[in-house]
User: Fold these one by one.
Assistant:
Number 1:
Amino acid sequence: KRGHPEWRRLLVVAAMSAARTDAWRDYVARQRTKALPATAIHVILARKMLRVALALHKNGQEFVAPQAQAA
């Protein structure tokens, strides 16, 4: 485990909330097919969200959620 423990905790808590949103629902569903524990899925999502946030900050862009694909 690296980094500040409180920051890590806050990232996972944010991921727990984001997992229920339309923007991340498909990504979480794909992770669930791997039969991982919920905590592991939230950590994976937290890391993904952090990578996206840093990329958006670096490029000066805003987050635009992908549109849900019609089945």
Note: Helices lie at 5-18, 22-32, 38-59.
Number 2:
Amino acid sequence: SIDKDKNLKVNKDTFLYNAFMDNFSTYSKNLDLKATVLIGADKSLDYGTVMLILAAVKQAGFTEVSLATNG
């Protein structure tokens, strides 16, 4: 999930937005890449921010990625 201040939370770990691309790639090496990833983002965030996170998740090797909605 991504909050309005661009803090990212994956499972119970927190990442800084500016370092997410590099850090998530390393972090994901210990995860099941076949798992489904659900991305939830604060509605105040712009589209580009969310798409950058989506790209990082896909670049890490996940193929099942979805965006969460509020309703």
Note: Strands lie at 7-10, 13-16, 37-39, 65-67.
